[in-house]
User: Fold this.
Amino acid sequence: MDFSYNQKQLQFQQKAREFIEKEMAPEVAEYDRRSIFPKEAFLKFGEQGFLGVIVPQEFGGLALGTMEYCLLSEELGRLSAGYHHNGIFQTQKMIMNHGTKAIHARKLILGDGNENEKRRTVRKERRRFM
Assistant:
């Protein structure tokens, strides 16, 4: 078995790393000190499409997979444990309003929900964050 990342995954990882280092790293010490994850950082993250990594393109997402989601999580973790937690898990929670199981809830809705549920849920989050 080959567990190497493919070219598309490596490009996504590089894009995420460059964005995080340029846009988030300069203020991370201050944000960690104050225990905050500012809305501005959250919105910048969404503008790059990072809040829609596993969302299908038809709903405005990037339509990538779990591996890319994990790569994004890893890159945030390189920057700060606080950013990792807030940037990935809490933002998913805010978007989906499904508690700590937000990531799985989103995957369930997009994978098994009917078209009305998918459109209603994703339309609401896209208006706010993507």
Q: What stands out?
A: The radius of gyration is 15 Å. The chain is about 70% helix and 0% strand. Residues 7-40+50-129 form a domain with the Butyryl-Coa Dehydrogenase, subunit A; domain 1 fold (CATH 1.10.540.10). The chain has one domain: 7-40+50-129.
